[in-house]
Amino acid sequence: MSNPYELVIARTFDAPRELVFKAFTDPEHLKHWWGPKGLTISVAKFDLRPGGIFLYSQQSPGGEVLWGKFVYREIVEPERLVYTNSFSDEEGNTVRAPFSPTWPLEILNTLTFAEHGGKTTLTMRGMPVSATEEELETFKEAHDMVRKGFAGTLDQLADYLSKV
Length: 164
Fold this sequence. Notes:
Blueprint: E1 7-13, H1 17-25, H2 27-33, E2 40-46, E3 53-59, E4 65-76, E5 80-88, E6 94-95, E7 107-116, E8 119-128, H3 133-141, H4 143-161
Antiparallel strand pairs: 1-8, 2-3, 3-4, 4-5, 5-6, 5-7, 7-8
């Protein structure tokens, strides 16, 4: 039985698995597509290893800056990537989401990359870590919003992959 709080997003890309995996694990790729459409991504720190961190900022056209981070847990190239994702300050300290006082502090993300006939299916599973009941409900209620946001981000990835 599936967990009602877990968010699952799957998308197939017209690109080999190694390239799709690299797009998620190389800052030179990530900065071109990661994040909401219209925001500029800057990589402050990138350390791809278990316990390592990807610290980045996203700047809106109006100049607002949001910080985020991944803390890597597992890296199995090119098939699996596991990390926690959270909002942060510029030093990498975890902070509350600016849009909700009940958004979970950390989301555990498990990404799997499966190749079939030169195309790669990415399956992303997200689940709050050590969340309160209220935080779990907030995350569950936001599933549609998060899916829409990731649809835009993954559209940017598909476009980027078609050019590299």
